[in-house]
Amino acid sequence: MAGKEQRNRKRELLVYRWKRYSIGYLFVLPWLIGFIAFMAFPLLSSLYMSFNEVRMGGNGFALKWVGIDNFRHAFVKDNVFPVELLLYVQEMLLIIPIIVIFALFISLLLNQQFPLRFLFRAVFFLPVIFATGQVLSELFSQGAGELPFLDQYGIEPLVRQQLGSQFAEPALNVLSRAVLILWYSGVQITIFLAGLQSIPKAVYEAVWIDGASPWDSFWTITLPNMLPFVSLCTLYTIVELFTFPQNPVIRHIRANMFKVVTGYGYSNALAWIYFTFIIVLLGLALWFIQRSVRQRGV
């Protein structure tokens, strides 16, 4: 009798979960079908190649099993990959919160009522349309992605003196490419605007009647309700910047692909190390933000 009741509870739980999450599963289904049809086999092939020494021959690829030698080579013999990975991670850990905070600040301004508001929203979203892919690479090759104020105002010596040699280089890279904050904040601003407009105005009116200031309402109402959107924008920004066309780590992986000494096997090993690192970073960011959301009871 107890076993039958337990089975009934499990069945009811499955039915409840299906009713609650079925729409989400249907939205994910096209992506899942596309992933299995077009991405699963190349990814598995790439993973298999990472454990092999791959040579190009007249009959195609010639694979020789080397185990984890390619992964060991990445950290023991390669003097470029670990350094570039560390420097780029330091740089991104600085620029990612700047982009998220900047996008939240601009969305708060654009959410206000003022004339031609739609025009200002379009201005902040236009870089997302134009500065993508090959266009962004061409802009950087012409020097449009850097701002010259570091040399004009003598900021570089001051930064090196205050931060030291270890942290000065990533900080200077962030400052010199401050235009990235504008180029890579359009989608985040749109997401934050959607989040701000989902908060009922009656909640703000209630706290204003109680005498709360705009600063108090931001910390007690706006920010707690925006934490899920902060989580989404943070994850999106991490993925976007770590697939940046001018990413030195990706350039290093691409360069090793066509070298005779390393080839496809070693470049695939580097790609999987980089991919694993990104997944771990996304997991840590998601865990930290979800923990903050639970503590605030949002």
Give a brief description.
By secondary structure, the chain is mainly alpha-helical. It has helices spanning 2-49, 69-76, 81-110, 117-130, 134-141, 149-152, 155-176, 179-183, 186-197, 201-209, 214-242, 248-257, 263-296, and strands spanning 52-57, 60-65. A two-stranded antiparallel ribbon has the order 1-2.
Plain-language structure description:
- 78% of the residues lie in helices and 4% in strands.
- It has helices at residues 2-49, 69-76, 81-110, 117-130, 134-141, 149-152, 155-176, 179-183, 186-197, 201-209, 214-242, 248-257, 263-296, and strands at residues 52-57, 60-65.
- α3 (81-110) crosses α7 (155-176).
- The model has no long low-confidence stretch (mean pLDDT 79).
Mean pLDDT: 79
Going by helix content, strand content and strand pairing, the class is mainly alpha
Number of helices: 13
Q: What is the makeup of the main sheet?
A: 2 strands, antiparallel
Approximately how much helix is present in the residues? Answer: over 70%
Describe how the helices and strands are arranged.
Blueprint: H1 2-49, E1 52-57, E2 60-65, H2 69-76, H3 81-110, H4 117-130, H5 134-141, H6 149-152, H7 155-176, H8 179-183, H9 186-197, H10 201-209, H11 214-242, H12 248-257, H13 263-296
Antiparallel strand pairs: 1-2
Helix pairs in contact: 2-13, 3-7, 3-9, 3-11, 3-12, 4-9, 9-11, 11-13, 12-13
Annotation keywords:
298 residues; mainly alpha; two-stranded antiparallel sheet
